[in-house]
Amino acid sequence: MNPEQFQETTPENKKIRVLLADDHAMVRKGFRLILQDEPDMEVVGEAGTGREAVDRVAQLSPDVLVSDFSMPELDGAQATREIRKTNQTTKILILSMYSNENYLRNAMDAGANGYLLKNAIDVELPEAIRTVASGKQFLSAALAQNEDSTFDRLTPREKQVLTLIADGKSNKEIAGVLDLSVNTVAVHRANLMDKINIHKATDLAMYAVRKGLVTPP
Predict the structure, then answer these.
(1) Which of 22, 50, 159, 199 is deepest in the core (most CB within 10 A)?
(2) Do 150 and 196 form a contact (C-beta atoms < 8 A)?
(3) Same fold, 3-143 and 153-210
């Protein structure tokens, strides 16, 4: 969706209010330069530490916080957890140089709405902000492609089991829903966890949300 199209669908052409958090002033200036030509966005403030980001969100209530993962005092995930204690409205987009799945999972589990790799900022930053502002999750294209290829390896039955795990059901409950033995469900569960390299129920639930199998609570 281009900026003009987005403006037309936004009530009263309301601009997306963005707060920038990074411990390098020149980096924040670079973000401003990227966003200044976007007619549907305005930068309402900046923060230089994770703690300052938490405080500025409380003061300004921005639509979107764009936060570096690696920051002093509180990293991006820690700051996100602090913000989520009192604020479920501001969308949080984490920027990171790390494509490792553990970093992604840490950020999303903390309550982030998107994860953008720094090597794609020039191309993806405005799109990422619009996506999370609209209430959707955003992953950098490279991360999304990796997840898609892994997800495609799951069998239909494994996807069913994953969906039910994300709904909080035990192996016994899943067995009852799918008319399978508990042992068979355990095998499917182990196989799907090995394929996607996720082994905790909470992380499996977040993965299922990202893949559209379930909607977030």
Answers:
(1) 50
(2) yes
(3) no
Question: How far is the C-alpha of 10 from the C-alpha of 138, rounded, in Å?
Answer: 19
* Alpha-carbon separation of residue 141 from 11, 205, 208 (angstroms): 28, 21, 18
What fold is seen in the domain 3-143?
Rossmann fold (3.40.50)
CATH topology of domain 153-210: Arc Repressor Mutant, subunit A (1.10.10)
Residues 200, 216: Cα–Cα separation, whole Å: 17
User: CA–CA separation, 202 vs 159, rounded Å?
Assistant: 16
165-169 LR contacts (CB < 8 Å, sep 24+)? 165/189, 165/201, 165/204, 165/205, 165/208, 166/204, 166/205, 166/207, 166/208, 166/209, 166/213, 166/214, 167/214, 168/201, 168/205
Angstrom distance (rounded) from CA 139 to CA 206:
13
Q: Which residues pair with 68 in a beta bridge?
A: 95
3-state secondary structure of 196: helix
Structural tokens at position 105: 């999972």
- 159 close to 167: Cβ distance less than 8 angstroms: no
* Residue pLDDT, tens place only, 107-144: 988 999 999 998 888 788 999 999 999 988 898 877 77
Is pLDDT at 207 greater than 90 in this prediction?
no
